[in-house]
């Protein structure tokens, strides 16, 4: 059949080719409108012609020769619903009718494919204006869209239906359709919002009536509504907020509502990702967020041994090592001084020579440590070189001492904790299970990654039901497992857990997402909404609302007296006896050792 098809195509287009340049003037208005409409998406235009004769119309000729989309011609077939099903992938359709009445009989055919219909009407008498408008209204009410350009072939007029003013408007240029959706004249849009990170909903659960919505998302919704002049008709949310695809193929939550076209827009931020349905779409991305894991904060280091943890182990080791090293350097110096018979300082003359090597060595070792811990050295060494060395040693000891002392002071004032889990690899090593509440996390967080750590973490995830206690409060009280949440919620409602060191967020977050609002696909509102949203974003308003909310969250700790008390304790600390425990322990140990040594000496001497 390809030959046939080519032949038909040629016969159809031939008149157009012959008449190029003749009557372009007439086509001006069609051309401008349909060129942009057809070039908007990568798509196919289905031309449904009744017979060859239809191809004589200027409009049909124009559509056949336009270059922006592929054209498929259906000829002669009775235009039926069956024909439509066969060409599912086509976005735009063209039909030609004798009169409005004929069109009305085919009503069922004009479902919303996401593209446009171009309906050409040959005979159009004045009295048909009424029935045309009626037809437009019915399409809007029953099929839920108005993506139809009505072309009066005789008058060469293109008409559109404006459902918000309930009137027929002439399409003057390619932006006419968008213009209809830039002012909705108070039309009640079915909006959806639920308690999420940046939104909260208040209302009566029994009557399922929404009274108030708050949060940056809700403010954005209000702003969009004001600019597009629609009213927000909030629908009571399902129990499952975000929702998704069920194993049996049905959809729940907001995704399900949008998938079934039960609403017009969801003003709660969704991660922009695949929800396994092509019947929803996202608005422009409005912000970003990370998915992070949190664990119980590590235990506090007990006051009794806090000084040991004031600096890290390597500093302690360095302190000890330098002590020994310096003693060694001093010994070398003395050795050199003695073997090379360097002149010693006058006041030491009498005894420099007659001491034994061992006792000199011991003396030097002790003196080094005396200087090292910043006690005055009793007797200065008898050589200049050694004195200079000693001076440098003093300086180092001052620096070390200052470091130790200041760390100790802060350790007493600010509580110290054992080491927290700071990377995913450490979390993996700790063998903690990861509890999740949203099933979506299961194939979101670690899935499909080739890193070993991710695969192991993936296998540790466990879905838990929504208990009466929140996951984060369970983590803070019980510990022993990790939770997953959005980074922003740890800065907002759950900030008190972080502020009072109950919960620790692992700084390495496995996923970052763009977040957008959700609309059904196709939706005529998307361009208008995106337009306003992008203006809001360009002005930095959403960011402003978000930081305002974070600021409020920080103040809100005043609503939790038990947390507030804990914060207060940390700001002003009065040192007590318990804080100096370690000193007494050291003293006790010293006393006991001394007693042992005394006993030993008493018995064996
Ligand atoms: C917004 O819609 C109302 C009807 O609800 C209408 O009266 C008003 O003129 C519209 N505003 C604009 C700017 O068109
Ligand atoms: C799919 O399962 C859910 C419960 O998980 C049920 O509510 C829904 O009716 C089911 N849908 C179909 C089409 O079976």
UniProtKB/TrEMBL annotation:
Keywords: Cell membrane, Glycoprotein, Membrane, Receptor, Signal, Transmembrane, Transmembrane helix
Domain of life: Eukaryota
Subcellular location: Cell membrane
Lipid bilayer topology: Multi-pass membrane protein
Signal peptide positions on this chain: 1-21
Keyword Chaperone set for record: no
Keyword Nucleus found: no
One GO CC annotation: plasma membrane
Transmembrane segments: 313-333, 388-413, 582-604
Name listed for the protein in its UniProt record: Uncharacterized protein LOC111601480
Species name: Drosophila hydei
Lineage, broadest ranks: Eukaryota, Metazoa, Ecdysozoa, Arthropoda, Hexapoda
